[in-house]
Amino acid sequence: MNANSKNITSSNLPNWQFVTMMLVGAIFWSLAFPCIKIGLHELSFVNLTIMRFFVVNIVFITIILLQSKRFSKLQKQDVIPIFLLGIIGVMTYHLGLNYGEQFISAGAASLIIATIPILILIFAIIFLKEQINFKKIFGISLALCGVIVISIWGREDTSIEIEYIYAALAVLLAAIMGAFYTISGKKLLQRYNGLSLTTYAMLFGSLGLIPFINKSLFDEVATMSTTGWIVIIFLGLCSTVIGYVIWYVALKMKTASELSVYLYIIPVFSTVFSYFLFDDKITVLYVIGGILVIVGLIIVNTKNKIETQATSQFLKRKQKD
Fold this sequence. Notes:
Number of helices: 15
Mean pLDDT: 87
Number of domains: 1
Strand content: under 5%
Helix content: over 70%
Largest sheet: none
Structural class: mainly alpha
Low-confidence stretches: 1-10
Radius of gyration: 19 Å
């Protein structure tokens, strides 16, 4: 473990700062869904993904050139695992999600993506040997109920529509890959800080998009509107660079199962943003669903002294392995 990784590991943010950091990430990720909808009006799902990560690569390469001392040294034995992590987190997840959003309703997409925390919980037990107690299961389940309420009844015109079953399967594949991205990253964070691992994974993963570049990309980019460029820059800089770095920085401080419940905040915010951006009508049930999500989040992250010590010892053991 190098100096940079050690510093990140030993840092312990006050709870309010950690929650604020997670809220910022959740806001940027929740805005990604309406932005993707807007972007798909001007770009194909493949070209939208390519342009998003074109921005991501520019930002990360610039950071490497200007702040190289902040990065953990890339170890030879980790090149292939990080490349595969990038393929999962970049190409598979985003292509699947962008493709699926063309042919299924927002409510259906939200319900499928809502399986990610449950999948993380299952994978964390199997692959990370995390200890899951009843309180954590109850909190995550309560938050899931809130997301279901929001997705189905949170807006007046919400519908669960699936035009093609392959689109739903593509979004489900994206959810599974999103969960694996967290679990796989948790192991690699024993040797890298959050910024380093996110950067390496995104740069390597973007290589998988090169075969998809063709003439249609240049034709569509040439006719993009100002709104289209704003959406692409936001998706690349805020939803991807900042959002994913925050996720891995937080994952180094918390167990995967604890962190997963924060993903349930995303539908709460995305519904609010849809209200302002698309004039979607919010129902009373949205408020009830939002309350369930918040209560579930509080339950999962409220610990007594014994639980805090147990989690601390678990993370220390993992860092030594």
